[in-house]
Amino acid sequence: MTEPSKVIHVRNVGQEISEHDLLQLFQPFGVIAKLVMLRAKNQALLQMQDIPSAVTALQFYTNVQPSIRGRNVYVQFSSHQELTTMEQNAQGRGDEPNRILLVTIHHMLYPITVEVLHQVFSPHGFVEKIVTFQKSAGFQALIQYQLRQSAVAATNSLQGRNIYDGCCQLDIQFSNLDELQVNYNNERSRDFTNPSLPSEQKGRSSQPGYGDAGGMYGLQAAGARAVAFPQMAGTAAMAAAFGGTLPPGISGTNERCTVLVSNLNSDRIDEDKLFNLFSIYGNIVRIKLLRNKPDHALVQMGDGFQAELAVHFLKGAMLFGKRLEVNFSKHPNITTGADTHEYSNSNLNRFNRNAAKNYRYCCSPTKMIHLSTLPQDITEEEIVSHLEEHGVIVNTKVFEMSGKKQALVLFETEEQATEALVCKHASSLGGSIIRISFSQLQAI
């Protein structure tokens, strides 16, 4: 085996695997100092803060096969002791962010035109020019923004996401070009600052200097929904958030927003506890406990997709000694009244920001919960003391990510972890309002 190092080499890192996926795989073992994605090689280099953290991670994954999105990844110590500037630049992005992006489209099952690319990239800033072409790497495009910060924002938001459901994945790098030259305005190139440019004769190359897109990409995709980030069709947006495909059993076509929850423990449940549980799957508009049926409640979600996630992942979950029944309600919404609790303006709704990231965390209740927004001086003992009334705590791990303290807590059963989340999400610990969600990690 290679000499122990702070740097871990990860292989078989598919295009569907994001930087966040890798961070989640290693963050239980210590602080992650640097991460470099080597997209062209399907590899990554990840530097822990110290060698013991890296050793602990590799020892753990010697006995447990690490897997991300159903793909096995393989880890070993890198021959590098530190990630230098050279390795960090090897991930294909230029030394300096540039206002021109080089975009490669992977898994291109549908044609991509200038119009589609403009729809995807324009929400992040004014797009001046787009040129598309075909290279050995596949279908590519150069996209020139007016401002460099727009290109940076687009890269951060769109890297690794899909334009259509389950295909046409974006791989984005900064180009080293200073200015794009556009000769024609057509389906393969466009200068949005000069609409009077002619369209070329059909069959000729748009931009010989960049490559030839040919005529095969001029057709609009039949039956495919174009995705405009961030105002994209719900199903496509969520499929992108889930890595290209929706979870098994999720159709993405449900339009019913209100959920009926029954078989609740009426002695222990209240609206805020239901909010804490259901807000994992979407924003909550309002909740109503039914007076004539104390073990029933109505929960109105932000949209039909979020309601479908809640029904799918919570049906049959155990809470307070009861197995929950979760179904779509016949009521399209909950009428506001004295017995309803309003949450539409609550700053505790999780999906107002980073919606795609939160969708990625959606899962059925697990034995492991993840705590964030913790005080910087928090200890494992304080966390255990805060949560132990809800069940047997098997293990805990406090770690730091991007300078912020977080923790993983493993309970003996899913029901105990669910109770802890329901009762202690948005509670105060050491002067901080903590956030709790389920973790899909199997062990600490």
TrEMBL record:
GO terms for molecular function: RNA binding. GO terms for cellular component: nucleus. It holds the Pfam family RRM_1. Keywords: Phosphoprotein, Repeat, RNA-binding. InterPro entries: HnRNP-L/PTB, Nucleotide-bd_a/b_plait_sf, PTBP1-like_RRM2, PTBPH3_RRM1, PTBPH3_RRM3, RBD_domain_sf, RRM_dom. Gene3D superfamilies: 3.30.70.330. Residues 188-210 are annotated as: Disordered. PROSITE patterns: RRM (PS50102). The keyword Repeat applies. It comes from the Eukaryota. Residues 6-80, 257-331, 367-441 form the RRM domain. Residues 188-208 have a biased composition (Polar residues). One of its GO terms (biological process) is mRNA processing. SUPFAM superfamilies: RNA-binding domain, RBD (SSF54928). This is RRM domain-containing protein. The lineage of its organism: Eukaryota, Viridiplantae, Streptophyta, Embryophyta, Tracheophyta.
